[in-house]
Amino acid sequence: MTVDQHLQEELHQALESLNDNVFLARAALVGRFPAIAELPNLDLRAEQMRAILLQAIEALRPPHRFGFGSFESRFYDVLSLRYVENRTVRLMMQELHLGRRQVYRDLAQAEERLALAIADGFEAGASATLEGSPGQEQASGVLALELARLAQTPAEVDLVEIARETVSLLGSLAENRQIQLECSMLPRRLMVLGDRVVVKQTLVHLLSCVLQSARGSVFMRLAQREDEGVLRLTYTAGEPPLMARLADAECIAATQGGRCEFSLSDPSCCRITLTLPRGRPASVLVVEDNADTVALYRRYLAGREWQLQVVSDPNQALEAAVLGRPQVIVLDVMMPGMDGWSLLQALRANPVTACIPVLVCSVVDDPELAVALGGSAYIKKPILQERLLSSLRRLLS
User: Fold this and answer.
1) Confidence (pLDDT) at 256
2) Does CATH place domain 282-396 in 3.20.20.30?
3) CATH 3.40.50.2300 in the chain, residues?
4) Are 193 and 304 in contact (CB under 8 A)?
5) CATH of 154-277 given 3.30.40.10, 3.90.320.10, 3.30.565.10, 3.90.1140.10
6) Which residues pair with 259 in a beta bridge?
7) In the 8-state DSSP scheme, what is residue 382?
């Protein structure tokens, strides 16, 4: 398949405007997505377009066995650096160890491949038969975007307690629908890993959908596995299940590392199973005075796996580490009041913090000094998400 030159030019324009809502909402590429082009709100139009572009870039990410900067990952790397991380070509040259011409050549080839992927999406969209309404995909995209923007606080939360709150919240809906809700809950706590608000919203979506589809009674049961918490809803279908809402619940559950499955044992007996992981998030203390870098860390470490504490004043970092006992510390070097090297020495001299792994992240390229002073690993800024995650996971393991 040959690439449409007009499409590639429109794609390039949209990528250059990725972080500018006004220009992105009015980009020519938007016209190829009628459902988005018809949105009257410019910000919503830009968010929808941005979500599509970011999803297309993410689709080029190679399997994890390929390292950053490898031949297999170069298209994803250049697109991510240039448009997602907003790096200059000079910084890209340094990060990828490539010449200027090669960076521009890789960018052109990557955009061509991206245009082909988007064109394939047009064809698939034209030939596919959708079960739901045309607005379903758009609504799902808005939900995914909203979830990505939501500041989450992962922790151990009690699924039994949240289930009771959900049942109480939806009692009036069950009464209006004349549905008998029967619950078999564990007499003890069932701790799962996730953001409490998001986990509750998952249960609310699921139970609301079931109550509006069921006839007679709905049975809720909670069970515990070694590494999972399970909630099952069994009912007799009186109306077709609200598939769009089930898809929304599945989307929300996925942000918590969960699964939502719908099954039929016979034409009328339905079962929905929600599975959520058990465990604890890894506690990470970030010592960084730059607000933009802190925001980057929060975005990179968003989700259920990490629990962040940020200290912008290095003079308060030692006390925070002693009191909080984080599992790993991410440490900047160039900070006002106290440099990171001095703080690293203080952390290693204190018996409470001496064994906490410290990941040094700095614009100063001196990994040997970091190790000599007690650092556990070193990353030179600017930092890529994949490198940060792999370093943290390696230190925690």
Assistant:
1) 80
2) no
3) 282-396
4) yes
5) 3.30.565.10
6) 275
7) S
